[in-house]
Design goal:
The chain has about 375 residues and is of the alpha/beta class. It has helices at about 5-10, 20-50, 65-80, 85-110, 115-120, 160-175, 190-195, 220-225, 240-250, 285-300, 320-330, 335-340, 345-350, and strands spanning about 130-135, 205-210, 230-235, 255-260, 270-280, 300-310, 355-360, 370-375. Helix 4 (about 85-110) crosses helix 6 (about 160-175). It binds S-adenosylmethionine.
Length: about 375
């Protein structure tokens, strides 16, 4: 999906009148309650959660291996949160908005379909600089098939105008407030991508690969920071790749978009000097994530770097935030959030052979969370 930065949203303010009064009002209402929920109610819930966290929830009273302890601890924290009406009310609003973005947003876009098709420019460019290589025979992994990610009806490919819905309607009306999943209230996810890409250590790169690129979001950030780099991205979703291709061509950036599995990219050994992995690993079971990282290691040159950004692990956040992240697994179409939250990507990179591995947060609520490594010379 593609969102606009706050700056771009302001420039596109004229897009709002494109919606009917009913469509605009409904989406803006969702934005207001999302803003209230994550901006006000959540701090009250957190305060109550922390002040009433009783001594019997301490880690020392939990038995088992460190992994079992971490899982059991999280269950206890969740039970404690669920006993608080402020937490339940805040989560009710989060779920309501997450569902209603589509229940209201799709009809709002449909009412003005011609206009949104024109705005999204759904036709492929006649003389592209970059390329779009779709492979309809590619096997869709079992973990991905049929999942309605983020509660999107039909999943990433479920509605042809999802690109327009996110860019021109849900982004500017609702998601601009932040405060969903790992994103803290008031944070700008376009800015996050630039900040994450800037964690690459050198001043220039020749060829950068993004596995699980979706469309042209993180690759756009790579282009902003390293304008000389040749860009290649892969994803499973033909719709996201097609939208990304159209978007990149519209702004004049050459990108090769390929429909490939991040675990088996088909790229030659040592073909890239950097790999950026943004918000991919939490959408895979951990074993698939490990396979994707092994593949990244293979396609990197010696001395090449990897920068990963995903929601923070449970071990890195306060108890209340761990409960919030865990909640997305059942309630916001993120089937692997919990499994991945317990996983350690930093250790995994070292096991694969990466050197100079480090991990740290760039923003509030420990997000974006960055894990980096270098393929030894
Ligand atoms: C949350 S999106 C992030 C997209 C993009 N990296 C960005 O910054 O906007 C996760 C993406 O991972 C893709 N994905 C999941 N499993 C994949 C796999 N095995 N191979 C390639 N892409 C995959 C999904 O289709 C989706 O586009």
């Amino acid at each position: 999906m593609t969102f606009l930065s706050k700056e771009q949203t302001q420039k596109n303010a004229s897009v709002a009148p494109v919606l009917s009064q009913r469509g605009r009002a409904g989406m803006e209402l969702l934005g207001s309650i999302q803003n209230y929920s994550s901006g006000q109610l959540r701090s009250l819930a957190k305060q109550q959660f922390e002040s009433q966290l009783s001594a019997n929830l301490a880690t020392s009273s939990i038995e088992g291996s460190p992994t079992q302890q971490a899982r059991r601890q999280l269950v206890k924290w969740r039970e404690h949160a669920e006993s608080l009406s402020s937490y339940r009310y805040e989560r009710f609003i989060q779920r309501y908005v997450a569902e209603d973005v589509y229940c209201r947003g799709i009809p709002a876009v449909e009412e003005q379909r011609d206009t949104f098709e024109r705005l999204a420019s759904t036709s492929l460019p006649k003389h592209p600089q970059g390329s779009l290589q779709l492979d309809p025979s590619l096997d869709v992994p079992r973990y991905y098939d049929g999942v309605e990610w983020h509660l999107e009806p039909g999943g990433y490919d479920g509605y042809d105008l999802y690109g327009a819905l996110f860019t021109y309607v849900a982004g500017p009306c609702v998601f601009k407030y932040g405060g969903y999943a790992a994103v803290a209230h008031g944070e700008d996810i376009t800015r996050h991508r630039v900040d994450v890409v800037s964690q690459l250590k050198k001043s220039s790169y020749a060829r950068v690969y993004e596995p699980g690129c979706g469309g042209f979001s993180t690759l756009a950030a790579v282009h902003n920071v390293f304008p000389q780099a040749e860009l290649v991205g892969c994803d499973l979703s033909p719709l996201l790749l097609t939208n990304g291709h159209i978007h990149a061509e519209r702004v004049g950036v050459k990108v090769t978009f390929k429909q490939r599995d991040a675990r088996e990219t088909g790229e030659p050994d040592a073909a890239f000097d950097a790999v950026i992995m943004y918000a991919l690993l939490h959408e895979m079971p951990p074993d698939a994530g490990v396979a994707a990282l092994r593949e990244a290691f293979r396609i990197l040159q010696p001395g090449g770097e990897i920068v990963i950004s995903d929601p923070p692990p449970f071990r890195a956040v306060p108890a209340f935030n761990a409960v919030l992240l865990d909640w997305d697994t059942k309630h916001r179409g993120e089937p692997f959030f919990s499994a991945v939250g317990h996983f350690n990507w930093s250790e995994c990179l070292q096991d694969i052979g990466f050197a100079d591995v480090d991990e740290y947060a760039l923003g509030p609520d420990q997000y974006p969370w960055v894990t980096r490594g270098v393929k030894p010379e």
